[in-house]
Amino acid sequence: MNTDKGKIIATGGIIGLFGALLVKFGNPVNMGVCVACFFRDIAGGLGLHRASVVQYLRPEISGFILGAFGMAKVKGEFKPRGGSSPLLRFILGFFLMIGALVFLGCPLRMILRLANGDLNAITGIIGYTAGIWVGIQFLKRGFTLGKSTTNSTAAGYTMPIFAVAILLLLVAAPTFIFFSESGPGSMAAPVTLALGAGLLIGALLQRTRLCTAGGFRDAMLIKDYHYMIGLIGIFVFALLGNVIFNFETFKIGFEGQPIAHNDHLWNFLGMSLAGITAVLLGGCPLRQTILAGEGDGDATITIIGLMAGAAFAHNFGLAASPAGVTTNGKVAVIIGIIVALAIGLSVIASVAKEKAARLKKREGGVEVGI
């Protein structure tokens, strides 16, 4: 087997197995790993929203960041950088979270839900694929958020310090931190297991660059299936892990799935929004988390947008629940799609205008030379 192919399959396999094991040891069913949900829980734990059932300082997130940070340091790839359209990244991250919370899960949880028999995830996958296809059309027309520039070392340490702070607050549990007493936020694997899993996954993802959006995007855009093989590895090993470790909760069907709803239209549209925004951002929530650990300030801004989106979703009734999608949530998804499309169109218009100006300038220079 090709070495690179073996690494990407192994990485996917480890993520899938930990997705099942974390459920076995306490994480919510079908939510062994969910980056959007975990940032949402952290936002709740910090009091940014007051939805009492989803408040917990998830150590997996700290593990992802610190694992990527440590590996990047060892490999000489820790490079503080940023400044690439921060406001647009914040907005896109904000609406990516809205789409994920209407679907009830990030793209990674979408795969893990399917691996535990939740067929509602199929609608999400179709929507995610559609959204990525739309994003690709913008890429083909020159969409870019611009080049990042070198930042100070202090700026690069922002997210690793945040990750350590979250761990310290989790252990110290001061009174100003909120912890759910019921619901998904109250369900958690032991801290050492969750942190260890996060550290390993973060380190592996820093090396392999596996990304859910990248897997679908590259398969459709350039017929490169390298990352897609890793995503298949996540599904296959999570499926095996669930059958072995979580057979009592393994259930194939649309109805009665944990922390899910079967409103197919909004599952589709929620993940379509997630797909468009992930492509425009250059990576899914998991990939953004790994990049932030490497010192990428643009990814850090995206994560701040994700957390703001989570807080807004729960403060204003946008997030879905097993009962279905709220009217506010439906409106927010439509607004998010419109905003994402507007950003894409405005950026490619600006890129085209800049190219035309450069071309005109060059032509003028030639004429002067003659």
Automatic annotation (TrEMBL):
Origin superkingdom: Bacteria
Keywords annotated in UniProt: Membrane, Transmembrane, Transmembrane helix
One Pfam match: Sulf_transp
The keyword Membrane belongs to this UniProt entry's keyword annotation: yes
Bilayer-crossing regions: 87-112, 118-136, 157-179, 185-205, 225-245, 265-286, 298-319, 331-352
Protein's name in the database: Uncharacterized protein
